[in-house]
Amino acid sequence: MDFSVIHGNLAYLLWGSWPDGPLGGAALTALLSIGSALASAALGLLLGVMLAMSCGRLKTALILGLGFFRAIPVLMLIFWTYFLLPIAFGIDVPGILSVMCALSLIGGAYLAHSVCAGIRGIGRGQWQAGLSLGFSRLNVLRYIVLPQALRMMLPSFINQWVSLIKDTSLAYIVGVGELSFLAAQVNSRTMVYPAEIFLFVGAIYFTLCSALDVMARQLGKRYRSATHSH
Amino acid sequence: MKLHSFVLVGLLLVSGLAQADRLDDIKKAGVLRVAAFDGNPPFGYIDEHSKKIVGLDVDYAEALARKLGVKLELVPTNPANRIPLLSSNKVDLVFANFTITEERAKVIDFSIPYIASGQQFLAKKGVLKSPDQIKDLKIGADKGTTMESTLREKYPSARVISFDDTPFALAALRNGNVQAITQDGTKLVALLANLPDRDKYEIPSFAISEELEGVGVPKGEKRLVEYINTWLLDAEKDGTAKRIYDKYFGPKSKSPLPRLFKIGDSHIREK
């Protein structure tokens, strides 16, 4: 093992050719992950609440829509947005945006079901208590049900975000210069150090995912103690 | 509502046809968008110091951009993305060791070839001596290349393993997952020159096909193709083509290889 290849390309793997060129590498992976994590959380929350509160045709449409995004591979969705939208409709979506869209839509679809399950998991008594106190349905949801449900959903959110961080590596298909893409470039030039390079890449993904896990747990703890002190 | 969106799509299609002259579009935009390899030395790869895409294909693209008087914008590509990038209008041209084939010419257009080579093999010394051994070997090829399809066609009993890019195929060869890898002779020579243990490997002298590589152009852009062809022939006349070739394959380069093809030729010359 000769890790001097990592040393020589460390800056490139961590932030690409920035500041002379576009940001790339681990920094872009982190940015892609943060962007899609926030968007998928917002989408998941919105769609999950709609799924839990709706009935009839709207509910059927939601279930079908969410089912569609859960059923197609992330890679396909990235490929479609990047290559097929311009051919079919003349809409040009840049690579980074198509990756973020695909990850947010698919992550959002998964999270919607977790959110819906979380809301359903709160007992009917809580709803009835809120309604009989004169809260509207929306306010019961906002002040009584969601704060409890979100706490239970936190592990599902972390799971989804961890898998999302790793899925950013699929951006290679449309040439977005995130960590794995740049690692493949360095590997192509140096040719004979694939083990060293991809071990290092693995270590970075591990660090990113563990950091997210630790941060989310800390946040969860603080949130829990804050709600208990009421 | 439905009708409305139909009309919209129709308008988009018509407007797409109306402004079909890409040559004017490029000049107007002031930018030439070119897809080039980022992992295929010496044709297109990331330079160790500048961290930018450089290589033989890039030198040609730069020369063309200079001639057009526009800025060059490079988009990294792998072999399989070359045609999708062109047909989805993400790039104007492809300079990526692009072998001209009838099959590909159905969906895109090509310029005249500016470099040529034969499909050859790289293997541990003594493993591959003649073409009739190919059928018994496990061979690594790059996904979406002519190497892959030619090999499957000519040697159906050979076990062809496809990799995303050449470095992965090379890693498989070094680890013993495959017994040989196949590529353009030009690329293999450069690959071998970069190996630290190059004396263990060899490139058997036979070639199983002739590969002529040109510029990939969107389908139907006749003026653009003509412009590029004239420019390429000029590049041969004024010595630009030889200078670019010698930078990577000349006698003083890392991987010297005699120049057996000149722009304007229809075949590789005999040695």
In short:
The complex is a heterodimer of chains A (230) and B (271). Chain A is an all-alpha fold. Chain A is built from nine helices and no strands.
Q: What would you say the CATH architecture of the largest domain in chain B is?
A: 3-Layer(aba) Sandwich
What's the name of the CATH homologous superfamily of chain A?
MetI-like
Instruction: Calculate the terminal CA-CA distance of chain B, rounded to whole Å.
Output: 67 Å
**Portion in strands of chain B:** 15-25%
Helix content of chain B: 25-40%
Uncertain spans of chain B, ≥5 residues at pLDDT below 50?
A: 1-18
Gyration radius over CA of chain B:
20 Å
Instruction: Give the overall form of chain A.
Output: globular
Q: Indicate the mean pLDDT of chain A.
A: 91
Name of the CATH first level of the largest domain in chain B? Alpha Beta
CATH architecture classification of chain A: Orthogonal Bundle
Biggest pleated-sheet summary of chain A: none
Distance between the termini of chain A: 56 Å
Which short descriptors sum up this protein?
heterodimer; A: 230 residues; mainly alpha; MetI-like fold; globular; B: 271 residues; alpha/beta; D-Maltodextrin-Binding Protein, domain 2; 2 domains; ten-stranded mixed β-sheet; three-stranded antiparallel β-sheet; 10 helices; disordered N terminus
What does this 3D model show about the protein?
The complex is a heterodimer of chains A (about 230) and B (about 270). Chain A is mostly helical. Chain A has a single domain, classed as MetI-like fold, CATH 1.10.3720. In chain A, about 80% of the residues lie in helices and about 0% in strands. In chain A, α4 crosses α5 (about 95-120). Chain B has two domains: about 20-115 and about 210-250, D-Maltodextrin-Binding Protein, domain 2, CATH 3.40.190.10; about 120-210, Periplasmic binding protein-like II (D-Maltodextrin-Binding Protein, domain 2), CATH 3.40.190. In chain B, about 40% of the residues lie in helices and about 25% in strands. In chain B, strands 1, 5, 6, 7, 8, 9, 10, 11, 12 and 13 form a ten-stranded mixed sheet that branches. In chain B, strands 2-3-4 form a three-stranded antiparallel sheet, covered by helices on one side. The radius of gyration of chain B is 20 Å and the shape is globular. Classes of the chains: A mainly alpha (about 230), B alpha/beta (about 270). The interface between A and B is medium-sized, with 28 and 37 residues.
